[in-house]
Amino acid sequence: MEGSSSYLTDGSPLVVAVSGGSDSMALCFLLKQWCQERGYELHAVTVDHGLRAEAAEEAILVGEWCASAGIFHTILTGDRDKPQTGIQAYARDLRYDLLLKACESLGSRNLFLGHQQEDQIETFLMRYSRGSGLPGLTAMQQVSMRGDTNLHRPMLSLARQELREYLLINAQDWIEDPSNEDERYTRTALSPIRQKISRLPGASAASLCLSLERMARANTALEEITKTVSDDIVHVSPLGFVTVEEDKFRGQPQEIQIRLLDHMIRTVRGRAAISVRLSELERLESELPATRTLGGCKVFVRQGNIYVIREFGRDKGPELPVGVGEEGLWDDRFLVFYQDKTALEYCNVRVCPIGHEGWQQIGKEIPEDLKNLPAVIRNQLPVVKSNEEIVAAPLIFPEKQGTGIASDRYRMVFHSKIVLN
Fold first, then answer.
1. Where are the beta strands (DSSP E) in 20-112?
2. Alpha-carbon dihedral sign for residues 261, 265, 271, 275
3. Total Cβ atoms within 10 A of residue 31
4. What structural domains and CATH numbers belong to the chain?
5. Helices (H), strands (E): how many in the chain?
């Protein structure tokens, strides 16, 4: 729990995912002791994926074990249709979706997961076999983020056998998952490979995990370098796009260039949870200055600058209804505040891109600071419309009076959530 304790400062409940296997059962009872000593409330949640007939009975059994130990317990079930293929991916996505929603309903931002040493090594081998880059090869971290929730994996340095011995000492049973023996699943096939590698001369599970820790250290250093370079050469515009001078960009090592592109794309996407494949970023870097789209963004070079802007595709762009006293997030990028407390005399008020027709409707000369921007950026700028009439354009005429555009009623702020790998 040492790596997690710095995140547990608000006193809110902790949530632990408990499948009933030895790993999660050990984590649950270790957490119970930790929470009792420090005054935290602990909630155990079990996901029934609906993939095995016996899963419902197993979830009930886990609940009985938790109840006997005085631990709150909830069973989570999903209503998605089971796919014919990709069962593991389906189960993982459903599990995380249900677990994160449970955290939200319980007022918790801290979810604990029972991954241990063998899981860590198998994750590395799986990603290594698929050509993952350094961020992926560092495997799982003790604390990571998924949305607004902290994911805690405090047992990554512990072997499964150690956890089972702890349960045996405490007379606590567990459930064996039959999928652990099913070689159709990737992790099951990797288990004998992991064991063979661990038996090589001079090798062990601990030495493999040490290599992962060292790769994580190297990756952290590259992240810090990328952040420093980004702060120095990347310009984040309040109008919702980013630029970097091509010469300065090309003056960086290739690995930093690729990470910068990932950083720039995710900055433009704001709060949208996106993940761009490393192979796609590598191809993008190699094909510049050709114009490309990736991760919902368009990347192009104009007058010596690399631009990363939002790409709406065939759509005209998103629309966001906004009422009196409300605020919202448009296109995952702009926080929109309605500041006027008086009654709104307009109907069907919404935020949407201005478009070419909007500029014609305004009938005003393009402001000087926008003239040199590519037209595609100008046409993406958000405005407030009532039906088809523009009633506010704070990013275009923030202080201009006498235009008939009620810009003073609204405020728009580009919310760039910059998160490096």
1. 42-48, 72-77, 110-112
2. negative
3. 24
4. 5-203 (3.40.50.620), 226-310 (1.20.59), 320-414 (no CATH)
5. 14, 18
- Spatial CB neighbours of 292, under 8 Å, sequence gap ≥ 6: 284, 298, 299, 300
Token representation of residue 37: 């000593």
Distance, CA of 340 to CA of 342 (rounded, Å): 6
Please report the sign of the dihedral spanned by the C-alpha atoms of residue 112, residue 116, residue 121, residue 126. Answer: negative
Q: Which of 296, 343, 298 is nearest to 323 (CA)?
A: 343
Cβ neighbour number for residue 36 with a 10 Å cutoff: 11
Structure tokens at 233: 């050469």
State whether the Cα torsion 140-143-144-149 is positive or negative. Answer: positive
Contact 133, 208 (CB under 8 A): no
Which tens digits make up the pLDDT trace of 179-202? 555 444 566 677 788 888 888 888
Length of the chain counted residue by residue? 421
pLDDT tens sequence across 208-254: 888 999 999 999 999 999 999 999 999 999 999 999 999 999 999 99
Burial 134-169 (b: 16+ CB within 10 A, else e): bbbbbbbbbeeeeeebbbbbbbbbbebeebbebbee
Rounded-to-integer distance, Cα 190 and Cα 183, Å: 9
**How sure is the predictor about 418, in pLDDT bands with cuts at 50, 70 and 90?**
very low
End-to-end distance of the chain based on CA atoms, in angstroms? 23
Please give the order of strands across the beta sheet that includes 410-414: 327-330, 334-338, 410-414
